[in-house]
Specification:
Strand content: over 45%
Helix content: under 10%
Order of helices and strands: HHEEEEEEEEEEEEEEE
Structural class: mainly beta
Largest sheet: 14 strands, antiparallel, barrel
Distance between the termini: 58 Å
Length: 283
């Protein structure tokens, strides 16, 4: 019984820690991470898991691969791609894995058993984005499948996310609603995620771009992301930002049709340092 209580407490702490870094929205893509994850209006396949409505304004096809060296034994990888069926309709699909490992089983007397356990989450997405006629406004519908492995327990579920984006001469904007009908089914009960909604704004003044994202749930638990990037030339861009107190910075370099992205993230209160690297391809 004491052993079970110890397991429960440790696992609960891991869940709280995992939620604090926002598993689903964690900006694992290099350049989005460098800019605090604020650039939800980024017209690039690396934006697929955050705002795929922008993809309808991108090129014919593309994909993105991201990974990183994260603190506290965390692992993360994402892969996504899209294909434009015709001018106003684009299909996309993506995959993300996040995990925390390296935790050793501990008994109530403090002794170690030598056995390790981990927490992991797999997110699979698919859907389509479309443009409203000739207007510079688009929307996307994303379907999500989620699988979670929590030591001896596992769960699976589904969800829905909707994005709308608009691009004007004065400012770019976006609105979104996530966790719509999102349900996770464990062995003996069903858990529903709170609906999240928010707005993103982006403004470019010559070579400098500034962006902010504010999101909340119906209990008004507000989170924010702020970012800035500087376009040095056609091939090189620099970025910096913050995500709920984290400090981020990085760069993007374009070689032909390939984007190479790197980001350094210092977690709030300097709890950890994350390095992220991603590659994108556009055709």
């Amino acid at each position: 019984m004491k052993r079970s209580i110890i397991f429960f407490i440790v696992i609960l702490q891991i869940i709280i820690f995992a939620q604090s870094i926002d598993w689903v929205s964690y900006p694992i893509d290099g350049f989005n991470a460098a800019r605090g994850g604020a650039f939800l209006l980024y017209r690039n396949p690396s934006n697929l898991l955050y705002n795929p409505s922008t993809l309808v304004f991108s090129r014919q096809m593309g994909f993105s691969l991201s990974s990183g060296i994260l603190a506290f034994g965390r692992k993360g990888i994402s892969l996504g791609g899209y294909y434009k069926v015709y001018r106003g309709l684009t299909f996309f699909s993506g995959f993300m894995y996040n995990g925390v490992s390296g935790f050793e089983e501990t008994l109530s007397d403090g002794s170690k058993t030598g056995s390790e356990f981990s927490v992991s989450r797999i997110l699979g997405t698919g859907g389509f984005s479309f443009r409203f006629g000739r207007a510079p406004v688009s929307a996307s519908i994303m379907f999500k499948y989620i699988y979670e492995d929590l030591y001896a327990a596992s769960a699976s579920g589904y969800g829905l996310k909707i994005n709308v984006s608009g691009f004007t001469r004065f400012i770019n904007f976006g609105v979104f609603m996530d966790n719509i009908v999102q349900v996770i089914t464990w062995n003996d009960y069903e858990d529903k995620y709170p609906i999240n909604f928010g707005v993103s704004l982006e403004k470019y003044i010559r070579k400098i771009g500034i962006a902010i994202v504010v999101q909340s749930d119906f209990d008004f638990n507000i989170a924010y992301r702020v970012g800035i990037n500087y376009i040095v030339n056609k091939k090189l861009s620099l970025g910096a930002g913050t995500m709920n107190g984290n400090i981020t910075m990085g760069a993007k370099y374009i070689y032909k049709n390939i984007g190479i992205n790197y980001a350094l993230q210092i977690e709030k209160r300097f709890l950890g340092i994350n390095n992220m690297l991603s590659f994108s391809f556009l055709k």
